[in-house]
């Protein structure tokens, strides 16, 4: 989140070497579940989970099929890390934080 903030809320940062795919999810319920149930337990994420929303050129995004990765609501796009700069160029406006989760003891 700090890297997104450092960009002025305009781009997603490059992926780490062990992260070959960027996985933007398609619905808020799934994003909340990841942020609340996974990120708040992850030291690398600072034990904080943020749900963000953004707009992107629909025509550009249509080249990436939606993948269902579990339950019906678990749907996401798979953007190869090497195409993230291209993805960022198709964002429309700023990335917005709409929810933040922290564990109860933090």
List the SSEs and their pairings.
Layout: H1 2-6, E1 21-22, H2 28-38, E2 49-56, H3 58-61, E3 66-68, E4 75-77, E5 79-80, H4 84-89, E6 91-101
Antiparallel strand pairs: 1-5, 2-6, 3-4
Would you write up a description of this structure?
This protein is of the alpha+beta class. It has one domain. It is 25% helix and 27% strand. It has four helices and six strands, in the order αβαβαβββαβ. The strands form three sheets. A two-stranded antiparallel sheet has the order 1-5. A hairpin with a 6-residue loop joins β3 and β4. The chain is globular and about 45 Å long.
Proportion of residues in extended strands: 25-35%
Mass-distribution shape: globular
How are the strands ordered across the major sheet?
Answer: 1-5
Q: What is the end-to-end distance?
A: 17 Å
The ordered string of helix (H) and strand (E) elements is HEHEHEEEHE
Based on CA atoms alone, the radius of gyration comes out at: 14 Å
- Could you say which structural class the secondary elements and strand pairing correspond to? alpha+beta
Q: What are the low-pLDDT stretches, counting only 5+ consecutive residues below 50? A: none
The profile of the biggest β sheet is:
2 strands, antiparallel
Number of domains: 1
Average pLDDT reading = 96
Number of strands: 6
Protein traits:
single chain; 106 residues; alpha+beta; two-stranded antiparallel ribbon; 4 helices; 25% helix; globular
What is this entry, summarized?
This protein has helices spanning about 1-5, 30-40, 60, 85-90, and strands at about 20, 50-55, 65-70, 75, 80, 90-100. The protein is an alpha+beta fold and about 110 residues long. β3 and β4 (about 75) form a beta hairpin.
């Amino acid at each position: 989140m700090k890297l997104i903030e450092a960009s002025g809320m305009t781009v997603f940062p490059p992926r780490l070497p062990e992260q070959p795919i960027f996985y933007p999810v398609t619905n808020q319920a799934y994003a909340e579940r990841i942020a609340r149930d996974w990120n708040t337990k992850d030291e690398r994420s600072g034990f904080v989970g943020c749900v963000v929303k953004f707009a992107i050129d629909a025509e550009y995004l249509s080249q990436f099929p939606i993948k269902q990765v579990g339950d019906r609501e678990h749907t996401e796009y798979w953007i190869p890390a090497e195409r993230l700069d291209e993805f960022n160029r198709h964002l429309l406006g700023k990335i917005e934080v709409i929810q933040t989760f922290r564990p109860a003891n933090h």
